[in-house]
Write a structure and sequence with these properties.
By secondary structure, this protein is mainly β. It has a single domain, classed as Rieske Iron-sulfur Protein (3-layer Sandwich), CATH 2.102.10. Helices cover 0% and strands 35% of the residues. A 3-stranded antiparallel beta sheet has the order 1-9-8, with no helix packed on it. Strands 2-3-4 form a 3-stranded antiparallel beta sheet, with no helix packed on it. Strands 5-6-7 form a 3-stranded antiparallel beta sheet, with no helix packed on it. It is globular, with a radius of gyration of 14 Å. The structure holds FE2/S2 (inorganic) cluster. FE2/S2 (inorganic) cluster binds next to loops. Pfam families: Rieske. This is Nitrite reductase/ring-hydroxylating ferredoxin subunit. Keywords: 2Fe-2S, Iron, Iron-sulfur, Metal-binding.
Length: 126
């Protein structure tokens, strides 16, 4: 059997095709967040969706500081009070619905948006 490559060696992509169903709106608490990995051909897209104040926003799972994926624990992208997105590695914080970095080592930078839309109770790529 062929060996699977380590995740770090897998080809990454930074965008997704539109209209891919991700989950039900009710699958993500408000406030809350969830990780998604989409396989597109032989490549992988890593992103996450935040639910905050009844709205959803998606981002590429890559911190603008050093390029790490943000969450140390699966699906835990928010600060404990649910008010901000947190990069668990060096403490950068981001506004949940805009991705603007408001504190930490990359203040003034911004998460890369991943377009998603909630339609009919389902969150899909947009
Ligand atoms: S990689 Fe996110 S704060 Fe350093």
């Amino acid at each position: 059997m062929a060996e699977q490559p380590e995740p770090a060696e897998r080809k990454r992509v930074w965008t997704t095709p539109p209209n891919v169903p991700l989950c039900a709106e009710t699958d993500i608490a408000d406030p809350g967040s969830r990780s998604f990995v989409l396989q597109i051909g032989e490549a992988f897209f890593h992103g996450f969706v935040v639910h905050k104040d009844g709205q959803f926003a998606g981002y590429v799972d890559r911190c603008p500081h050093q390029g790490y994926p943000l969450a140390i624990e699966l699906d835990r992208y928010l600060t404990p009070d649910g008010s901000l997105i947190l990069c668990g590695w060096h403490g950068a914080v981001f506004e949940p619905l805009t991705g603007d970095c408001t504190g930490g080592p990359c203040a003034g930078a911004r998460l890369t948006p991943w377009p998603v839309a909630a339609v009919g109770g389902i969150i899909r790529t947009a």
